[in-house]
User: What shape does this take?
Amino acid sequence: MNLVCMDLEGVLIPEIWINVALKTGIDELKLTTRDISDYDVLMKKRIAILKEHSLTLKDIQDVIAGMDPLDGAKEFLDAVRSKTQIIILSDTFEEFAKPLMRKLGWPTLFCNSLVVDSKGMITGYTLRQNDGKRKAIEAFRSIGFRTIASGDSYNDLTMIKTADRGILFRAPAAIKDDNPDIPLVTEYNEFLKEIEMFLQ
Assistant: This one.
């Protein structure tokens, strides 16, 4: 059996934190896993910025409510799901993802959760597990799945390298240059062709 595993932000939906940065005018929130490879460092920085500016979970959810998937993402997911199963492996949070999952047709999502205090302030986060994307691929392979994995950021690389077939999708130049052995696609139709070849 075959399984497609994909990242979410930057691949199927816009980067949530970049949209929050644009809405609030806080440029530091534009940093993502494309820029900082250590996820814990990145999240602690984000949480400190939110505290400094008194931004709550609801403030972020209000931004997310106005966001839409990337052009063609829903159609791409529908096309893939007509051929095989797909699971989204993301470092986003369940408290963020629901409105966008609805717009994508409720694909299966494995992600993390936030720690929120009584005032609605984000005080921390809970990972499903460390290096969860790679471990998910290993688990799927251990129960007989052939996996193809794709993403655009540093935190996708162990997943991509562990899968039977790994592909970068719209990755920035720095990541592509550091990983010249991993093929890069920039359009959904290109990625769909890679999936179709993998399924043969």
Q: What stands out?
A: The first helix runs from residue 16 to 24.
